[in-house]
Design brief:
alpha/beta
Length: 313
Amino acid sequence: MSLTGPHSASSGAVGLREQAEALSEAMPPLVTEAEHVASTIAQGVHGRRRTGMGETFWQFRRYREGDTAASVDWRHSARSSHLFVRETEREAAESIWIWRDSSASMDYASDFAPCTKRDRATVIALALSSLLVQGGESVAPLGQGFAAMPGRSALRRMAHALIDAPESDAPKTESLPPPEHLPRYSQVVLISDFLSPAEEIAERIKRYAADGIRGHMIQVLDPAEEDLPFSGRTEFEGVEDDLRLMVGRAQNLREAYHQRLEIHRNRIIETARRIDFTFATHRTDRSPQTALLALYGALSGAIAARKPPRPGM
């Protein structure tokens, strides 16, 4: 399912890298906006920095496709015919991978929206990363082979992955989150318009759940995609395929369109509930703070619930 209205816009390329430590340096507009959004949320929540976590050994597990060579414990692997990855307690309990859809449909912005879906999703992803780093969590962009790490370096890496990376490094053709194997007790945050077929989305997120991963999904839609406010003669153009549809009275499609969108969304929500994922929607004509607060709250509760008990507790 993919619907776009008659107006679309592409995000302007952002050429500067984030200079988080030097506030006097000019930062990319999306990073600046994300920092502002994060600061407003941070004023109303408490940090979750903990002691006793960090690099404490957690477990060895078999090497899986998607693991990096640097994650292999070569000494332990030498005792066996298999490769083993050494997981630390921080990696097992506090790692959060964030994915923002980079497919072409995310470049859509109608005349009813202040920005593209891609830009809004980027702001939410960066603001969330900032909050998590302030709370002592380890974060990483999903699908790029990075290990999750704490601190401002993780935030700079996230900004580079979402903003500064060359287009050749960030293919736009994949509208589904990558099937990456992650450490046990990790969490994934998936930010997308989720307009791919519901069956494909369900299959992909079930893979994470099968590995014991908790997930949080934010569906970012343009107000035109939510409301279909067009009337009269209207031409709809495909974004990810070369399709055009001319209708004489666009308002006559509204009821059927709303029903189809609801069915599509409910299918995803039902799957998310069964595998213990959270799901929320966000419109680009609404404040990003609302979406960020709900997402941060869901993550906070999940981290607290799944934190491994320390000895003696």
